[in-house]
Write the structure tokens for this entry.
Amino acid sequence: MQTVLLWLRRDLRLADNPALSAAVDQAERVIPVYIHAPDEEGSWQPGEASRWWLHQSLKALSAQLSDLGSRLILRRGPSLEALQALVQETGAEAVFWNRLYEPLIVARDRRIKQALRQQGLAAQSFQSALLVEPWHLRTGKGEAYRVFTPFWRALQKRESPRAPMKVPRTLRSPARWPGTEALPALGLLPSTPWYPKLEDHWQPGEQGAARALQGFMDRGLARYHEGRDLPAEDGVSRLSPHLHFGEISPFQLWQKINEVMAARSALLRGGEAWLRQLAWREFAHHILFEFPHTPDHAMYERWADFPWRDGHAPMLRAWQRGETGYPIVDAGMRELWATGYMHNRVRMIAASLLVKNIRAPWQAGARWFWDTLVDADLANNSMGWQWSAGCGADASPWFRIFNPFTQSRRFDPSGVYLRRWLPELAGLSDKQIHAPHELDEASLSAAGVRLGMEYPRPVVDYRASREQALEAAKSLRAGPGSVS
DNA sequence: TGAAATGTTGGGGCG
DNA sequence: ACGCCCCAACATTTC
């Protein structure tokens, strides 16, 4: 073949990129293109934090391609029209890309593949974002897995995932490059520049991903099985946004982690726990592929009737702003707003408060996370919220309600995480800081805290709202524990 | 990847 | 020495 269009989407890397490697192997010339077409993702277009990341990642990839003597062509959607225009302009004979698994994207890509093939072009897609394709892993009865542990066992029983692919040495350019949009013209960055604060915490792009992985292996991996629950510590990998945009692949991670585990037995427990988390990502994508309604609706239909709290809107706003009066939740919500990220233990606590105590619909929480997280990912986000709400695949039972004060004392015993994000509580002691509303006037004023002024009272009474939640769950006909 | 209520056990103080 | 009570620590059940 003479010329191939390499259609890049969320595989913004050069290493272990099957579509790229195939293009380099099979064609004389490769034209890498990214097409900006957010409306093709329906109501789940990337939020502001995601768009900031995407902008930076495209910039990084563009620079990497330049170093190889190539370029990144930027176009606007609709995707099919943009690809057809490029075919016209360049005489390309083929379009290669790596597969994604969100329902609307799957449908779009299927249409595009058909249309291109009808034009006589070679359209080919590759596996790159998941270790196992959703249609390749089935239960004994031939059904999709709906429970994580059997899924994980089945995943481990398969032969090991393929080895990662190398970065191509060269990408041969076309005789004449087609025109490109300027990156700023895609309008990914918001008009009010609130994002410089994100730059302190993240380095989007393939190099940033490699650095995050190295840092994690040096600092967090050995103790990951314990450290992952302590939000004050640097114990998690923070690879989720890099994985979402495909700046690093699960194949690279699978191999690397297994390699260091084999070399150092001290890494075995941490590595095993981390690979299990990687498998949760696989599971989430399988569930989304099999149950495409789950971003918007409960996996099991009877949950549609759940009695959410009337008039929860003001509490939802307090939750979003980190003003619930529950310190561990407020710290998390403020970490989210400031950095585009929240530690996973704190995500579970914050989600539990919103869904079970405030009793706002889980979709409201999912939407807020979607708009504010740099690692917002439709499969992970939908599964995570349905897990918290108790209405999803392998969900936490409805009666599992986190006590934010107990969790705070257990996982941030010296209040380091709380003080980092709630400076107004810094004057309280390690014992006091978890529950300011329980303190007497003297202790509060000694620390310079007035309830309702420097720090809010709890938006809901914990004990009462817990009882109400259990009552509400009982009202579901089939009972809270039953499946399907 | 939970919390709270309830039940059981065993040691120590005490009359 | 013995029975009784209290209570902490742990286990089990329930939501």
The radius of gyration of chain A is 24 Å. The mean pLDDT of chain A is 96. Residues 397-401, 470, 473-474, 480-481 of chain A lie near DNA strand C (CB under 10 Å from a C1').
